[in-house]
Amino acid sequence: MKIFIFCITIHLLFTGLLFFLRYSRILRCEYISVFIALFVPVWGPLMLLGKELSDRHNMRPAEVIELERPTAEEEKKSIRVEENAKDIIPLSEALVINDETTRRDMMMDILYNINKSIVVDQDDMNRKVVPLEEALVVNDTATRRELIIDVLYKNPGDYVSQLYEAKSGGDTEIVHYAATALAEIRKDFDKKFQSIHHRMQEDPENERLEAEYEKLLEDYISCGLLEGEALKKQLRIYSDLLEKDIEKGRTAGRWTLLNKKAVTDQKLGDAAALDRDIRLMEEQWPDRERVYLYRMQSAILKKDSGKIRQIIDTMKEKHIHLSPELKSLVGFWEAGFGE
Hints:
By secondary structure, this protein is an all-alpha fold. The longest helix has 31 residues, at 172-202. The radius of gyration is 43 Å and the shape is elongated. Helix 1 (2-23) runs antiparallel to helix 2, helix 9 (141-153) packs parallel to helix 11 and helix 16 packs antiparallel against helix 17 (305-318). It has 18 helices and no strands. The protein has helices spanning 2-23, 31-38, 43-58, 72-84, 91-94, 100-112, 122-128, 132-135, 141-153, 160-167, 172-202, 207-222, 228-247, 254-268, 271-284, 289-301, 305-318, 324-337.
């Protein structure tokens, strides 16, 4: 027992010495290594010392690298290189040199060097862009065909009016492409209407579906596919849907609903319905500019020139701000009145 206590005492004293050497930074090991040695009698301290001796043996002093100062002649060369940079000319000037081989090499370098890019002046490109409806009436048949095919692969629904114009052209192939695109647009709308009607039959009280159907009908009317009686029929359905929304008495979005209803009734030529829309607007927004616009349009539908003159005089008295649309309308009628 005494021998065991003696060995433990010697171990603790030796470990304490290791702690002191680590604290004095004579040993370069981590503190955790000394703690591990504390709980591994005999072998722990011996292994710690062995590792320390091994690390010291493998450590090599860093070599001092001295950089030579450039000579006066080398400094002059550096200055000459910097001055030669001023001799570089812009690419736009280099490409107009007479050496055809040099020009070809420079262009190939641009095309194959991924670290370079060609920047196109956006303003210059904007001046070269023309509307699609203008491009479709150019004399180049190949260009018209390419444009129509491009429309077919993008979103033909955004170019219905242009497709109608192309359909009325004289080129058989272009007429075929345009007719095909318009047929596909109609088919797409038919599928959407069938789908939503089926879902509404299964869940007739779903307000989200009603809103989705209303938005689809709005898109269908505004896309330009409908004409004549077919257009009037859809406008009437849309007007009735808006009327139901307005009757619900919702405050949020009421102005937008009333505007949509007024525009729809104007397209239908329904002056009585338009007057009802105006009265609802006047309850909250009597002096808004668009209210006066709808008043003018109602009077025009009724062919009441006296009412038109009265509305114009009221706007002048109240100093109502005139939007370009309303200003143009007022200017037209004032010219007719000889004012």
